[in-house]
Amino acid sequence: MKEQGKIWMNGKLVPFKDAKIHVLTHALHYSTAVFEGIRCYNTPKGSVIFRLREHIDRFFKSATMYSMKIPYSKQEISNAIIKTVQASGLKECYIRPIAYYGYGVLGLTPTPNKIDVAIACWDWKTGESAAGKVRGARCKVSSWLRIDSRSQPMRAKAASNYANAALARVEALRDGYDEAIMLNYLGKISEGSAENIFIVNNDEISTPPQSAGILEGITRDSVIKIARSEGITVFERD
User: Which end of the chain is more exposed for a tag (fewer CB within 10 A), N or C?
Assistant: First the structure.
């Protein structure tokens, strides 16, 4: 990763290399963190952050599901994201705001610890793989099931949920595939390790419903809205 610009930490922009946390930070041990993955695109009208308001809304909803009270308003976080992108000097980038239980008391109960917030951005054009962007992706059905929402809130974009996804991704790569397709406990398609799934059949599009244990993707919502505005039938179904 190329270190560029600065990282916003608890209200201050600090040099990229100095954005550090204590090794006994609660979130590092118990995955008590929520985050967002946001894109900033270079357009003819300048840099544009994709659906920032919706990402911020989900960020705060995820925090609420984990009993986290983010010590900043939505507007303050939005302003901090814009400031961080500007400080990076990047026209196009990936943005990662994260809120987490910090250093203080190390035990299973996170709430005695304060909530820390950080925002970073970097150049990440294709994500982890070009597969599916420049050619068709080879996928396998993972042996790992998507965690049931009755076990933990899968509608939250939380660090703990991605341990499950990482297992599926590593298995797929180890077996010579590009990506994993995860099933829920009913054996129905849920999502990929880090993306929602759509099936195109003739002039219709199908995608798993929220009840399948998916993350309510903002890009997913955009695809559905654009398709329907173009007169394409979209089914949300198992």
Answer: N
In a shared domain, residues 105 and 153:
no
Query: According to the model, what pLDDT value does residue 157 have?
Result: 97
Regarding whether 114 and 26 lie in a shared domain, the answer is yes
Q: Is this structure's pTM higher than 0.85?
A: yes
- CATH at 61: 3.30.470.10
Give the tens place of pLDDT for each residue, 2-45. Answer: 888 999 999 999 999 999 999 999 999 999 999 999 999 999 99
Which residues belong to the active site? 157
Residue 132 lies in a domain: no
Check residue 145 and give left, alpha or beta (phi > 0: left; psi -120 to 50: alpha).
beta
Domain that holds residue 195: 139-236
Domain count, the chain: 2
Q: What does the pLDDT look like over 159-214, one tens digit per residue?
A: 999 999 999 999 999 999 999 999 999 999 999 999 999 999 999 999 999 999 99
Q: Do 180 and 90 belong together in one domain?
A: no
What is the rounded average pLDDT for all residues in the chain?
94
Per the domain annotation, does 134 fall within a domain? no
Q: Is 216 exposed, middle or buried (0-12, 13-18, 19+ CB in 10 A)?
A: middle
